[in-house]
Specification:
The mean pLDDT is about 80. The longest helix has 24 residues. The strands form two sheets. The protein has a two-stranded antiparallel ribbon with strand order 1-2. Strands 3-4 form a two-stranded antiparallel sheet. It is an alpha+beta fold. It folds into two domains: about 70 residues, no CATH class; about 40 residues, no CATH class.
């Protein structure tokens, strides 16, 4: 049981490092929003089972942070920024005709 508990901790640490690495790799990307891994214990996630105390951790979710970033001035007249909440709704993306949402505003 203790090996499994340690393994879940390592898996959680791997997820956290992966999320942090993605944040660092994209820090210079226009419109990028950082993510944060959220963790919980296995005991709290298994209702009606009292023998799982100390069974380890699990990744509950990876949440995107939509806090306001820095707005910088540009020389391109088609660059736009959103101050506060909201998204640009655009057509396209991977599927033609699909509506996609972004806060990235360098339009061409």
């Amino acid at each position: 049981m203790s090996f499994y508990t340690a393994l879940t901790g390592l898996k959680g640490a791997q997820t956290d490092i992966s999320t942090t690495s993605n944040n660092i790799a994209n820090v210079g990307s226009s419109g990028f929003k950082k993510s944060r891994a959220e963790f919980g214990d296995i005991f709290g996630s298994t209702p009606l089972q009292t023998n799982n105390i100390g069974s380890g951790t699990l990744t509950k979710s990876i949440k995107q942070q939509f806090s306001q970033g820095n707005i910088t001035q540009s020389t391109n007249t088609l660059d736009m920024a959103i101050s506060g909440q909201g998204f640009f709704a655009m057509q396209g993306g991977g599927n033609a005709g699909q509506t996609v949402y972004t806060r990235n505003g360098p339009f061409q």
